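Review form for a predicted model. The reviewer records the input and the model, then writes brief findings.
Reviewer: anonymous (R2)
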Amino acid sequence: MKLRRWGAGAGIQAMRFLGIDYGTRRIGLSYGDELGVATPLPAIVDADPARRWEALLALARQRGIRELVVGHPLNMDDSAGPKAKEAEAFAARLAATLGCPVHLIDERLTSHEAEASLPPSRRRAVRASGVVDSRAATLILQDYLDQRFPPPVDAGEGEEA
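Model under review:
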């Protein structure tokens, strides 16, 4: 029987994470916990920015979110353009309002990857629904969770309990 040691983050209980793909029209969302698996949630697609904000805060409070993970759309040269600065301001506002940690995670190409997972004939139709945004949020959060809760590693071949 092999012994297995868990990586950093083992033993953390009741962690609840909200992944966010921030956009000025839609906010893609995903949920994860200490199990380390991100799952998509319905996007917030309200046309009114104030109602989108209130819906996001209500969701975070309802689910007991402890940490937020926001996509950071850096340029390919690692510089922060206007969209990245918007995401930074959004993340700072979330941290100030909810009082919990907010992590910015490089999201380059996540929307493209999420859209590529859809059949080409459906891409335009589902864009407005927020499905692509929530899939992107899931990729963003999963990337963070994979770093936070690495898979178990073998303690060594042939070791017995």
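Findings: The first strand starts at residue 4 and ends at 5.
Further findings: Strands lie at 4-5, 16-22, 27-33, 39-44, 67-72, 102-106, 153-154.
Recommendation: see findings above.
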